[in-house]
Design a protein that fits this description.
The chain is mostly helical. Helix content is 74%, strand content 0%.
Length: 104
């Protein structure tokens, strides 16, 4: 939700240091939370009002391409990211298995 109101840099420097100790105290795996936050930030990079990638694309798109067309064009990609985010949320082992195996 914060990605709709503030940029990913501010989220990284303001929100993450506030919530990380809370998650640590609750015993939640910080690797898993870190990946969830990263995927959320990536999704916020694609969604208005801050969606910087949308503005970059508008800058290089032909003049006949409207901002609305670009917004409609990103919908499938945002849906894919939301599905991925849901899978990470439901199956934390998908994120934590390999690092735990390698660094055991």
């Amino acid at each position: 939700v914060a990605g709709f109101f503030i940029d990913f840099i501010e989220i990284t420097f303001i929100i993450v240091p506030v919530v990380a100790p809370i998650f640590l105290k609750l015993g939640i795996d910080l690797l898993w939370i870190g990946v969830l936050i990263a995927v959320n930030l990536q999704t916020s990079f694609l969604t208005p009002p801050f969606g910087f990638s949308l503005f970059y694309l508008k800058g290089v798109a032909p003049p006949n391409i409207t901002t609305g067309q670009i917004y409609r064009g990103i919908v499938p990609y945002v849906l894919i990211q939301l599905i991925g985010l849901t899978l990470i949320l439901l199956f934390p082992e998908a994120v934590t298995w390999l690092p735990k195996t390698v660094f055991k």
